[in-house]
Amino acid sequence: MLSLGAPRDMRILHPFGGKAEYGLRLDIRADTGPDIIGDAHALPFRDEIFDVVVLDPPYSDDHSKELYGTGQLHFKKYINEAARVLKLGGFLVMYHSLSMPGAPSCRLRIRLLVETRVNHLARIVHIRQKDNTKQLELIKTTF
Question: Which of 34, 44, 112, 137 would be a feasible disulfide site paired with 27, CB 3.0-4.6 Å?
Answer without folding.
Answer: 34
